[in-house]
Write a structure and sequence with these properties.
With 465 residues, the chain is α/β, with parallel strands linked by helices. The protein has 14 helices and 16 strands. The chain is globular. Bound molecules: zinc ion.
């Protein structure tokens, strides 16, 4: 039997969404590093794997905090007074305070396997839990990063590690709070961490490295620019991520201190290019919308988390109208299904605009295909992958939707994608290939049972009180 570690050479897809549309009987050929070498129509050659369903490129998850899986669903009890993002954050900090490296790896391994089973094939891990609970760095500063990378390798998901810079407690350079000690680094210490992470990612084609600033609250634009410059080759053309304008309180604080809204202020202070991924950007005005589209950034939308935390609704229809770019992320892990994220993204626009099929361009037809294609393009770009989809040069990430599901009977491939996203039968993801490795077999990851047993054991002994 093939192990998770071995890469396939060829896969035949009965029906696949290629760069030139739906094609039948495609053979996808991978090189030794798991990149797609060719996609050709071929009914005769022997192949390593046959996929009889509907195959699309894997969907990237461009924003994840693995450790937050431990509190997903635990913050739904009503507290007195107004419950909001900031109350949720206090509960999240309490969990953060306790996790050790081994526990983080157990959580991440289970989570990443679950993501694969739902159709995500890569994850951008926005990682800020760097130090020991009292804020002392681990002997190896990249200990926690190594645990996340290890979990990704065990699961077989491609990962872009984004070690997060966190320097201060607010826009006025306040010191970090007690609960934020595990996150904080000076720019110099951060560069040491980045060096460690760089060596952990080098030589592995399924790992890559990027830069993240937690937010404009937590890092000044001056420090963001200086660190990117000082990192030099460590961040050569690497993606740059930042949380921005998620909550109105952040917008108001930024206006009070800097007399500018966060997105406008970021563009004023930093050179924001298409390397950048702005996470949430929920509260943008029309002028800021123009900046997003013109600069070519990816907007990282996390619809279920944004709904869960009461953030607000990002004006995605306006971004699409100005040919801007977005991808999706699981963020706080209240949902690990790309189909559900895309459904809520479209539905939030419908509810606010009182229209239907909002995020599909005129003449493009299938809403499901448009949403999946946008998320594949934006999610890859946000991870530094500029060639994506089923075409030569892209990483060999494939997701098969089981077309023999009863609810897909008599439907075209476009209608199957529409049904998957908008009418959600039980998870129809059948087989998943990442970088040429066959990681989900007939709906199940071979390590899921073991990973969920250790996850269960860990959380049952984990005291959140
Ligand atoms: Zn986040």
């Amino acid at each position: 039997m093939r192990t998770l570690g071995s890469r396939l050479t060829t896969v035949r897809c009965a029906t696949a969404l290629t760069a030139s549309g739906w094609q039948n009987n495609c053979v996808v050929e991978f090189d030794a590093s798991g990149r797609i070498q060719s996609v050709r129509q071929d009914t005769a050659s022997a192949v390593d794997l046959c996929l009889d369903g509907v195959v699309i490129a894997g969907i990237p998850n461009l924003h994840s905090h693995a450790h937050q899986k431990a509190i997903a669903g635990l913050t739904e009890h009503r507290v007195s007074g107004q419950d909001d993002f900031w109350g949720w954050r206090e509960l999240m900090y309490r969990t953060n305070a306790m996790l050790d490296p081994q526990q983080l790896q157990v959580i991440a391994r289970y989570l990443y396997i679950d993501m694969l089973q739902k159709g995500y094939t890569s994850v951008a891990e926005f990682h800020y839990l760097h130090h020991q609970p009292d804020g002392t760095p681990y002997f190896d500063r990249s200990e926690m990063s190594a645990r996340l990378l290890g979990a990704a390798s065990e699961a077989g998901i491609a990962i872009t590690l984004l070690p997060v810079l966190y320097c201060r407690g607010g826009f006025r350079d306040e010191p970090v709070q007690h609960a934020q000690r595990r996150f904080s680094n000076s720019p110099d210490d951060y560069l040491k961490l980045l060096e460690g992470c760089h060596s952990l990612c080098a030589q592995d084609p399924d790992r890559s490295l990027g830069f993240a600033a937690h937010s404009l609250r937590a890092v000044s634009p001056k420090d963001i620019c200086a660190v990117i410059e000082d990192a030099g080759e460590l961040l050569d053309n690497a993606p740059v991520h930042i949380h921005v304008a998620e909550q109105m309180r952040e917008v108001n604080d930024c206006l009070a201190v800097n007399r500018a809204r966060p997105v406008a202020w970021l563009y004023d202070q930093c050179e924001v290019t298409d390397r950048w991924c702005l996470i949430h950007a929920t509260h943008v005005d029309p002028d800021e919308q123009v900046l997003l589209a013109k600069s070519g950034v990816t907007v990282g939308l996390c619809p279920t988390t944004e709904a869960n935390l009461g953030d607000g609704i990002f004006p995605a229809s306006e971004l699409m109208a100005s040919e801007g770019c977005f991808g999706i992320g699981s963020d706080s892990q209240v949902c690990t299904s790309p189909a559900e994220e895309l459904r809520l993204l479209e539905y939030s626009q419908r509810l606010s605009l009182q229209r239907r099929t909002v995020l599909v361009p005129d003449g493009a037809g299938s809403n499901g295909r448009a949403l999946a294609t946008a998320a594949i393009t934006g999610g890859n770009r946000a991870q530094g992958e500029h060639v994506c989809g089923l075409q030569p040069g892209a990483r060999g990430d494939l997701v098969e939707i089981a077309s023999d599901h009863t609810e897909f009977s008599g439907r075209t491939p476009d209608q199957i994608l529409d049904t998957w996203i908008f009418s959600g039968p039980d998870n129809p993801v059948q087989n998943v290939v990442v970088g040429g490795k066959h990681v989900v077999h007939d709906g199940v990851h071979p390590l899921m049972e073991r990973a969920s047993a250790s996850y269960r054991q860990m959380v049952e002994t984990f005291n959140l009180a």
